[in-house]
Amino acid sequence: PDETQIDFEDDFIALKTGGNQVLVVSGSFVGIGTNDPDNTLHVLSAGTTHIKVESEAGYLAALRIKAGGQTSAYVWVPADTADLRFYVNGADRMHLDNDGKVGIGTTTPDELLTLNATEPNIQFQEGESERAKIGINDSDNVVIHQQTSNKHIVFKVNDGGVTREGMRINGAVP
Asked: What value does the mean pLDDT take over residues 114-143?
C-alpha cells in the first residue's frame, strides 16, 4: 500500500495519502482536494462539497468575516438552537429560525417575515429605480407609496377563478 508522504518543493507542500494529494500549500493558497488552489482556501471534492464549522455542545459556532480595518461580521448559530443569525456592526441584524421564519431587526420572528424597526418599510426596486414602498409611518399608519410618477395603485381580486381589478387609485388625479 501507498504510504502517507509529505512532499516539499520550492513554495509548495503536499500531503499525500493513498497516492493522492489531499492537502496542498502553494504559495499563500491552501488546497483541499485540488493540486492547484486559486484562492486563499480552495476546497474541491467529487459531488457535493461541505465545509463544517462545529463547536462542542453548549457553545456557539460562527464564521467570522472581516475586510481590512472594518468591524467583523459573523454568520453564526447560537449554542441552544439551530437558528442562523447574521451579526453585523455590533448586533444581530437578520435571523432565520428553525421554522423558516425570518426576522430582520429581531431574533424572535412571529410570522414568515417579521420586520422590527422604527418606521419599517419594504422597498421595491426595478433596475435600481425605486418603484413602490409599503411601511409604517411615524403616526403608525400603514403607507402604500407608488413612487413612479402618474402611475396607479391597483388592487386585484379573484372572482370565481378570473382575476379582476377590484379598485384603482389614480396617481394622476389626487
From this structure: 96
